[in-house]
Structures are given as structure tokens and as C-alpha cells.
Amino acid sequence: MRQNPRGDVPVIHDSAFVDPTAIVCGRVVVEENVFIGPYAVIRADEVDADGHMDPILIGAHSNIQDGVVIHSKSGAAVTIGAYTSIAHRAIVHGPCRVGGRVFIGFNSVLFNCTVGEGCVVRHNAVVDGCDLPAGFYVPSTERIGPKTDLNAIPKVSAQASEFSEDVARTNNELVLGYKRLESHAVQTASRC
Prior knowledge:
By secondary structure, the protein is α/β, with parallel strands linked by helices. It has one domain (about 10-190): 3 Solenoid (UDP N-Acetylglucosamine Acyltransferase, domain 1). The chain has one helix at about 160-190, and strands at about 10, 15-20, 25, 30, 35, 40-45, 55-60, 65, 70, 80, 85, 90-100, 105, 110-115, 120, 125-130, 130, 135-140, 145. The strands form 2 sheets. Strands 1, 3, 4, 6, 7, 9, 10, 12, 14, 16, 17 and 19 form a 12-stranded parallel β-sheet that branches. It has a 7-stranded parallel β-sheet with strand order 2-5-8-11-13-15-18. The model has no long low-confidence stretch (mean pLDDT about 95). This is Carbonate dehydratase. It comes from Herminiimonas aquatilis.
């Protein structure tokens, strides 16, 4: 965990797991039972012209997988809802709000947008400069922007929703497993 130039330090719930290779810097709030994977970077260090910075908030039971980057322009807020999965190497760049029970696929990019509750954004997709209502499904490699006709975007299927829930559940189990390993390592070190 790192302090930003303004002096803000992350606030991380005791039940969360942050991989030792991850970087969590500045005004970041990580709620309970969150998994932050190897080489993830969550960096809240920029301020606006008045010196203000909103936090980056990672909601309870969410997972930020390997190589994900979460950052924000000029101190704008980034909020990740509860039970949300941000998959490997995705970029979430604020201002950005991601609802609960959302799945963001590998290498996807979110910028200056809102992604509503229960959405699925598949791999290598881009959501830029628009508000995606709850329950929408963005296919792989699609680009959704301010001129996109949202009527042309499908709704999340039961199968896609089940997949999202399974990813969240699997990563919640990883948190518990890694926390047990941490606890075991501390107990072993204290006996030496």
C-alpha cells in the first residue's frame, strides 16, 4: 500500500486479500472480502484544479484480477459495485461508475462512463463516454459510445448472468483461501 503525493493512504478492509505484487496507492477504499490479484494497479493520486480528489471505491465481494488498472483523471470518482468482477488486464479509468454484479471481460476498457447493475461487458470491448443501463450485454470487441443506439444492444442472458455470478463466487473463495495462507504464514513465523 502506498501513499500518494497528497498524503492519502488506502483503507483496506481486514478481510480483503491484496496480492503482494499489486499496487494500491492513495485515496482507495477496499471493502470486505475483495480479491485484488497479482500486478493489479489501483491508483488514486491525481487532483482537480482545486486540489480535490474523490476516492476509488472497490465494493464488497468484488474481484480485481491480474493486471487490471484502475485510475482516474483529475481526481474524478471511480466506484466498483459489490460482487463485481473486473477480469484480467481490463482498464477502468475514471470518471467511472460500475454497478453491482457486473462482469468486465479481459482487456476491456471503461472510461468516462456508467455501467449499470448486472451488465456484462465481454472481452476486448470498450465503453467510453456513455451510460449503459442495468442488464445490458456488450459482446466481445464491441465499442459502445455516446452515439451508440442502445436499442441494438442485447440484454444479459441467464447464461451470461450465471457465468458472472460463478466468477464472483470463485474469487470470493480465493479470498478465503489466500487469507488462510496469510494466517498460517504468520502463525508459522511467530513460532520460529
